[in-house]
Amino acid sequence: MRAAITKSLTLTAVFLGLCAGSAHAQEMEVIVKVPFPFVVRGQTLPAGEYVLQPVDQDPAVMVIRGWHGNHESPAIVLTSPADGRDPAGDKPALTFTKVENQYRLSAIWESGTEGRTLSKS
């Protein structure tokens, strides 16, 4: 049996908009277009446009739902503060881990220093 090869891939997704209710990152809403299918907590989401935002302004719980004609069921994920810096500099970015032929969402970066990693579950 061949072991699964895992490598990290950083994608600076095409961000369609970025809105903030205030200067606090936990109130930020990000709208993004992901050009390939990806996995979130065992759920495969198709390529398309998505809104990522905290639930009840709690940065530890994020909801990912389809946007602009994408009617995919929402995915809710637990997150924790990310270590390090945004791989895309100061631009918002999503980080994916590629396992065989699947991309798994692993982190959400709002700015150069504000990022959240998805909890492993």
Describe the structure.
With 121 residues, this protein is mostly beta strands. It has one domain. It has no helices and eleven strands. The chain has strands spanning 6-11, 14-20, 28-34, 38-40, 43-45, 48-55, 58-66, 75-81, 93-99, 102-109, 115-118. It has a nine-stranded antiparallel β-sheet, with no helix packed on it. A two-stranded antiparallel ribbon has the order 4-5. A hairpin with an 8-residue loop joins strand 7 and strand 8.
Task: Give the secondary structure arrangement, pairings included.
Layout (H helix, E strand, L loop, with lengths): L5 E6 L2 E7 L7 E7 L3 E3 L2 E3 L2 E8 L2 E9 L8 E7 L11 E7 L2 E8 L5 E4 L3
How much strand content do the residues show? over 45%
Q: Specify the structural class.
A: mainly beta
Largest sheet: 9 strands, antiparallel
Query: What is the terminal separation in angstroms?
Result: 25 Å
Name the strands of the widest sheet in spatial order: 1-9-10-11-8-7-6-3-2
Short description:
The chain has about 120 residues and is an all-beta fold. Helices cover about 0% and strands about 55% of the residues.
Keywords:
121 residues; mainly beta; 9-stranded antiparallel beta sheet; two-stranded antiparallel sheet; 11 strands; 0% helix; globular
